[in-house]
Amino acid sequence: MQDLAQAVYLSLGLTLLGGYLLGSIPFGLIATRLGGAGDIRQIGSGNIGATNVLRSGRKDLAAITLLGDAGKGVVAVLLARWLSHDNPFIVALAGGAAFTGHLFPVWLKFKGGKGVATFYGVLLAACWPAGLLAAVTWLAVAALFRISSLAALVAAALAAPFALATDQDAAFLGLCLFMAVLIFIRHKDNIGRLLTGQEPRIGKKKTAEAPPTQSTDGAA
């Protein structure tokens, strides 16, 4: 029994560490440096996510960043599914760890993005019906208002109700709530600008603005 408990704890530890390290990969920073666009942290808002990469004028690098940030969430969840024989609790832990890694990456002194792309990657791989509904919500709100942060906040707020409506496991409901809370916390500055009508719209460049101490981009 003791050996079994040790094996379970080891599995949980590896799941959390592996998911976190995957989530910590800063695709925005890697893409802009290798693509010749410089350090994304010195552009626009200073955020490492796809929305700020788009402000560099490089749509190709923004797409690479979006796919990379979402993909690392997908990989973390799918690996957990395989290793745990599709245990929902383990899968949710891996997804949450990858999401946390993006927000607080060890490679960047724990100063990461806002997790929106990784949020979708995790959701689509963990509970695709809820993830698909959240993605459609983002697209609809973004198309209507052209504000990335607003679309992200609405989608995050509705993720848990979507999980309930599609009869997802309780572990995935908890995952949705966990990520939504962190997304709202990371978007606190955006919420302030939304309330005052000063939030920038999708695709708007911010080249003259010095990057802040903490990123204020609409999505990451």
From TrEMBL:
Keywords recorded for this protein, A-Z: Acyltransferase, Cell membrane, Lipid biosynthesis, Lipid metabolism, Membrane, Phospholipid biosynthesis, Phospholipid metabolism, Transferase, Transmembrane, Transmembrane helix
Gene it is expressed from: plsY
Pathway annotation from the record: Lipid metabolism; phospholipid metabolism
Protein name: Glycerol-3-phosphate acyltransferase
Coiled-coil stretches noted in the UniProt entry, renumbered to this chain: none
GO terms, molecular function: glycerol-3-phosphate O-acyltransferase activity
Family: Belongs to the PlsY family.
Main location: membrane
Function summary: Catalyzes the transfer of an acyl group from acyl-phosphate (acyl-PO(4)) to glycerol-3-phosphate (G3P) to form lysophosphatidic acid (LPA). This enzyme utilizes acyl-phosphate as fatty acyl donor, but not acyl-CoA or acyl-ACP.
Transmembrane segments: 6-31, 61-83, 89-108, 120-141, 147-165, 170-187
Reaction catalyzed: an acyl phosphate + sn-glycerol 3-phosphate = a 1-acyl-sn-glycero-3-phosphate + phosphate
Quaternary structure note: Probably interacts with PlsX.
Subcellular location: Cell membrane
Pfam family, one: G3P_acyltransf
Keyword set includes Phosphoprotein: no
Membrane protein topology class: Multi-pass membrane protein
Enzyme class (EC, first level): transferase
Organism: Caulobacter rhizosphaerae
Entry's EC annotation: 2.3.1.275
